[in-house]
Design goal:
This protein has 497 residues and is mainly alpha-helical. It is built from 18 helices and six strands. Among the domains are: 198 residues, Serine Threonine Protein Phosphatase 5, Tetratricopeptide repeat (Alpha Horseshoe), CATH 1.25.40.390; 81 residues, no CATH class; 32 residues, no CATH class.
Length: 497
């Protein structure tokens, strides 16, 4: 049984039927064999469509207990109110074990996506079809494989490196862990391949694109420059260069209204570079429930799983528009079913609140996309990377100040390299708040945000607002115990678990 569980993580691709629902529907399967299936252009497209559904792992609820992968990824930084499941509490206090179901959910989900990508990358080249279309489709597969590996290597460290389809006779059915350096080599190679694939510059339907590829590659280079690889200056140069390509190309533009970050009309538009796709009636999620306070919606449950601690709200500068009512956060709203009665509550995440999902039939209408890449991250990546190379420059200031001007804050100027670095890190915390960036920023910088002083402290010595410190082992998640039990080649476990 344990072996079968492990094998399912590396199963054959889900060969889906391409239609208007596209990659939103994971429940599309074919009884055809691999050899018989990969013969036509439409089958090639369907194979690529089948790589996307694993992205919905981010919002997959864990055991129907009010936790999801995305919410638990927010807990280690300590900026979320306590209360809820024991797993949430353990993630906040850094006391989880390898048996935490979320670890297995993201491991198995993303390796399923990798498996589907591997199959497409192997089989599509032999199909007779338009060469440009073929290369574009393969670009999507390489982009998605890189994305899945990028999350896995940051969360788990050394992991199995699989680049070919796995079946029951494969020598890699029970793979060993590969060094993280090898994983990053594949990620970079995949993204460089995707860059040259002829994919569209941008996608307004939620598919991979050249803009998304360059944006992700800038993030990868920035991560590689810091911990744990510590590649330093050369990779800061690469990160700045790649981010500048995105900026100079004008692929994306900042919204003039924060509401557009989480409404239906602006999905995959403006500053939203790459999102996990949802559509009412086809695929929904519980994001709105996870951020919804009690008594203001008609949802079957208002979980309020992810809500900011007061100290984080107070760490924003005075008059920052993002903390004003119904910008990134809110503290009052109409009571459920009323247009007159107001309910007040502690700060909640309006940034992820879909109004349609909170009304009648909300459980069926909760189709907010989950954002993985936004333009502000690219702007801040450029500013941070270029500062490490050349110190503060006019162009670097301009990128940060675009974000600050929208937030109605004064422009930065005249800072030292060290002060500018911390200013950029603060903007990452405040602008990208609760978007699954903080834990990875802690990993690569080895710094944590001191909300009381607005400065950054050593990750292994500072106790956060909850009195909790990181230890070295808590900078990684454990390999899921299910996988360790099924595959002895994965040993040793990450230290401390």
């Amino acid at each position: 049984m344990k072996k079968n569980t492990y094998i399912l993580a590396f199963c054959f691709a889900l060969l889906s039927v391409s239609c208007q629902k596209e990659f939103l529907n994971e429940n599309n399967q074919s009884a055809l064999t691999q050899e018989a299936y990969f013969t036509t252009a439409s089958q090639a497209n369907a194979a690529i469509v089948g790589i996307y559904p694993a992205l919905q792992t981010f919002t997959q609820e864990i055991e129907f207990r009010g936790d999801a992968v995305w919410s638990l990824m927010e807990m280690p930084a300590g900026h979320v109110n306590r209360g809820g499941s024991q797993y949430k509490e353990n993630t906040i206090t850094h006391t989880n074990s390898a048996n935490e179901p979320a670890f297995y959910t993201i491991w198995s989900g993303f390796y399923r996506g990798i498996s589907n990508a591997n199959l497409a990358i192997q089989k599509i080249p032999a199909i007779e079809m338009n060469p440009a279309t073929k290369q574009s489709l393969l670009g999507e597969a390489h982009f998605l494989r890189a994305l899945y590996y990028y999350y896995l290597v940051r969360l788990f460290g050394d992991i199995p490196l699989l680049t070919e389809p796995i079946n029951f006779a494969s020598p890699d059915l029970y793979p060993a862990r590969s060094p993280k350096e090898k994983i990053y080599e594949l990620i970079v190679a995949d993204l460089q391949t995707a860059e040259k694939s002829g994919m569209p510059a941008i996608s307004k339907t939620g598919k991979a694109s050249i803009g998304a590829t360059k944006s992700l590659l800038a993030s990868v280079y920035l991560t590689m420059a810091g911990y744990p690889l510590n590649k330093g200056r050369e990779y800061y140069v690469l990160a700045a260069s790649k981010a500048k390509e995105v900026i100079d190309a004008n692929y994306y533009s900042l919204f003039d209204n924060y509401l557009y970050l989480h409404n239906r009309a602006n999905k995959n538009q403006g500053e939203l570079i790459f999102q996990v796709q949802y559509l009412a009636g086809v695929a929904t999620n519980r994001i709105t429930e996870f951020v919804s306070p009690n008594d203001i919606s008609k949802l079957s449950s208002s979980l309020n799983t992810v809500s900011p601690i007061p100290e984080f709200i107070n760490s924003y500068e005075p008059n920052d528009k993002r903390v004003k009512q119904k910008q990134f956060y809110f503290t009052e709203d109409f009571a459920a079913g009323s247009t007159t009665k107001i309910v007040k509550f502690p700060h909640a995440l309006y940034k992820f609140y879909l109004e349609e999902a909170a009304g009648a039939n909300g459980d069926k209408n909760s189709d907010e996309n989950w954002t993985l890449l936004r333009l502000p991250e690219v702007l801040l990546t450029y500013a941070e990377a270029s500062n490490e190379v050349d110190g503060p420059t006019t162009f670097a200031y301009d990128q940060v100040n675009k974000i600050r001007t929208r937030a109605e804050l004064p422009k930065l100027q005249g800072l030292t390299r060290e002060d500018f670095r911390e200013a950029i890190w603060r903007e990452r915390y405040h602008e990208l708040a609760y978007e699954n960036k903080s834990f990875f920023d802690i990993q690569r910088t080895r710094k944590v945000y001191n909300l009381k002083t607005s400065h950054f402290e050593d990750v292994l010595t500072f106790a956060n607002e909850l009195g909790i410190k990181f230890t070295q082992n808590q900078l990684l998640w454990p390999i899921p115990q299910k996988e360790m039990d099924a595959n002895t080649n994965l040993k040793p476990q990450n230290p401390g678990y």
